[in-house]
Specification:
By secondary structure, this protein is α+β, with helices and mostly antiparallel strands. The protein is built from 17 helices and 32 strands. It has a 7-stranded antiparallel beta sheet. It has a 6-stranded antiparallel beta barrel with strand order 8-9-10-13-12-11. The protein is globular. The chain starts with a strand and ends in a 9-residue tail after the last helix.
Length: 685
């Protein structure tokens, strides 16, 4: 399934009795009276209604949630609006006033000058029970589509910082945002919030509605004060390790705020949260979802696992609503960042950027200086830096530093923003977090933490930090910070649980290289080679792999060598290996290993190209390195067994097999048969 477009759709309610109980077979027309079409006036866009063709103007939906004309809708429907009207089921159009909004849950509250009927709130829905979306799909007016409840308590759809979704296959489409999700009796289940859609924006049956419980809690705050204040337990959370997940899923406490509710309840760092208010917890986002329903002055029951012993504690939250913005609180665990506050604040020092790479990140290291990866800028002299107040133009500053870092000078960065100062010889204390741009969410976020696999090799001028900290496209150029929020590196990428960062020491080398006589020449040559290598690889990628002509193979090999960029070594070697140019592929992958000896990604790439070439004995030293440093990696274990059998080292193959039995018993059975009765060596490609 491709999630290529997010179309938001929302819906909400208060608990009130409906005098007309509806049958499970059909819905009464009265249901439409409690849902409205929302007609915002966006800058430069026509307003819906009044003869505007359907689909020509931004329209949404809303659901009546209170007496005196209170209507809830999705915040994104009206966020840029200069004026808001609503169209009732009978066709009348009324003006609407914005009472308040909550960006974390994407809910806004409107008021219209007429008292409209409310829907009764449904009990918590059962799986596969009937569910219907009532909304203004495509601006065609109110309509109903039906399906079933597909899942409950979905908190990881990644549309909003605070999510407590009901998933349904009832069709929701553009314009459904803010509509109602009702059960088979016309009772409110939730407010449709978001969908996974096809490239053509059509519905594929994976739709999400904010639960009625969360919606009622948000509307309660919005109607009272115009904003929402969420409680915080004063903990920073992380996902358990893979080994811990083999025993139990949950959210692991990584840090505690002094005097916070969690610490006062006796919780400790390392405790595993299994349930909160009887809701099963599988990840930190489940905790955010469960806590979002708790109001100030209330308590929460937490089931905890510590040292193999399970017990429960009660958290108590003050009835005093914090003054000011959420990010000004002393505690940890913000709704959109379930980690220590000093980690979450590092987001202020990271900015999305656009240059040779259309979307990446850059890290602020001084008042007017950012650092990013060289492969982000290549031969470009300028960078667009996206800030909360708008885009800024940055100038690339040449340096004689030869690694994958580039310096950007930018005037006008936020005066009160964070600055991450690089320090010499600091590896830092784990866990480590990557901080960078999330393409899907269109925001800078803190990613799941990890630990150091290997430090930079001592004999490598361009060594890297090798970590398990999660990264994804767009994070390159972002910050790698330790448990104290200190900058320990600049994210460079990776995958399959093996990620890399340029150490902070290299940022100091980059800065020192600004004033050298050869700064402009070195910077220019490496940037041009990066651009030429990328151009050649793009040309090769547009052709069937077996049809890459010899001239293009030579051009890829030559320009990518000149770039001196490990990432391009790996990608170019992969392309050439698929095309059958194995000597060139091995040479490029060997160059990556020589430049960054401790890179597991580089070693595995070299092993793959050697395997295709049938060089099993030559694989052995690299396979030993990988097995020693990635003993739980199934791919490393498979390669180790293969190289041991066909490279003539049965003892090494059996060592890898013993480890495989600890990791994957099913694969270990097949590997054992392979060792005992090995097939003939494959014919080299």
């Amino acid at each position: 399934m491709i999630r290529s477009l997010l179309v938001a759709v929302w819906l909400l309610t208060f608990v009130t009795a409906n005098p007309h109980r509806l049958s499970a077979q059909s819905l009464s027309d009265d249901v439409l009276d409690s849902v409205v079409s929302v007609l915002p006036v966006w800058p430069g866009k026509p307003q819906g209604g009044g003869g505007t063709p359907p689909g020509a103007a931004p329209e949404g939906s809303g659901v009546v949630v209170g007496k005196d004309g209170l209507v809830a809708t999705a915040f994104h429907v009206i966020e840029p609006a200069e004026r808001i009207d609503v169209r009732l089921a009978d066709g009348r159009i009324l003006p609407a006033e914005l009472i308040g909004q909550d960006e974390a849950s994407d809910i806004a509250l409107l008021k219209v000058p007429e008292d409209l009927p409310l829907l009764e709130t449904a009990p918590h829905p059962s799986l596969a029970s009937r569910a219907c979306v009532v909304s203004n799909a495509y601006g065609l007016g109110l309509s109903v589509t039906c399906g079933v409840v597909s899942a409950r308590h979905v908190s990881n759809a990644s549309f909003n910082p605070v999510e407590d979704f009901i998933q349904t296959d009832a069709a929701a489409n553009p314009g459904s945002s803010g509509g109602a999700l009702v059960d088979g009796e016309g009772r409110l289940v939730g407010m449709v919030s978001a969908i996974f859609a096809s490239r053509a924006e059509t519905n594929i049956g994976v739709n999400f509605a904010v639960s009625s419980a969360l919606l009622a809690r948000v509307i309660e705050d919005l109607s009272a004060t115009g904003k929402v204040s969420y409680v915080s337990a004063g903990w920073g959370l992380e996902n358990p390790s893979r080994a811990e997940l083999q025993v139990h899923a949950g959210a692991k406490i990584a840090s505690l705020a002094s005097g916070g509710p969690a610490q006062q309840a006796g919780l400790k760092v390392g405790d595993l949260i299994l349930a909160l208010n009887d809701r099963t917890i599988r990840s930190p986002r489940d905790v955010i979802s469960a806590l979002a329903l708790v109001r100030h002055g209330e308590g929460a029951s937490v089931s905890v696992l510590r040292g193999g012993r399970q017990f429960s504690v009660d958290l108590q939250f003050s009835d005093q609503v914090p003054v000011g913005a959420q990010q000004d609180r002393r505690d940890v665990g913000l709704p959109d960042c379930p980690y220590a506050l000093l980690i979450c604040r590092t987001r202020q020092a990271v900015f999305p950027v656009e240059s040779f790479d259309p979307l990446a990140s850059a890290t602020r290291i001084d008042t007017d200086l950012l650092v990013t990866n060289r492969h982000i800028v290549a031969d470009r002299t300028t960078v667009v830096v996206f800030t909360p107040s708008g885009p800024l133009k940055g100038e690339v500053i040449p340096s004689s530093y030869r690694g994958d870092l580039a310096l950007i000078k930018v005037d006008g960065l936020p005066e009160d923003g964070a600055v991450l100062t690089p320090a010499k010889d600091i590896i830092g204390n784990g866990p480590f977090h990557a901080v960078g741009a999330d393409v899907a969410r269109r925001q800078v976020r803190v990613f799941a933490p990890g630990e150091v696999i290997l430090p930079p090799a001592t004999d490598a001028d361009l060594g890297r930090l090798h970590i398990t900290s999660q990264m994804q496209p767009g994070v390159s150029g972002g910050a790698l910070v330790d448990s104290e929020g200190r900058l320990v590196g600049i994210a460079a990428g990776g995958g399959e649980g093996r990620f890399e960062a340029l150490p902070a020491q290299d940022v100091l080398t980059l800065l020192a290289g600004r004033n050298t006589p050869d700064a402009l020449a070195v910077h220019g040559a490496l940037g041009r080679a990066l651009a030429l290598c990328s151009e050649a690889m793009e040309q090769a990628g547009a052709s069937p792999s077996s049809e890459i002509e010899a001239g293009l193979v030579e051009r890829i090999s030559e320009t990518c060598h000149l770039s001196r960029n490990q990432g391009q070594f790996l990608e170019a070697g992969r392309l050439l290996g698929i095309a059958g140019a194995l000597e060139e592929a091995i040479t490029l992958h060997q160059a990556a290993v020589d430049q960054v000896p401790n890179s597991l990604n580089a070693r595995l790439s070299l092993l793959t190209s050697m395997q295709l070439a049938g060089r099993y004995e030559a694989m052995l030293p690299h396979a030993r390195f990988v097995l020693e440093n990635a003993p739980l990696d199934p791919r490393a274990l498979r390669i180790a067994i293969q190289s041991g059998v066909w490279g003539g080292d049965q003892a090494f193959a059996r060592q890898a097999l013993a480890q495989m039995k600890e990791v994957d018993a099913t694969q270990a059975e097949a590997a054992s048969r392979f060792i005992e009765s090995p097939p003939p060596k494959p014919i080299p490609r």
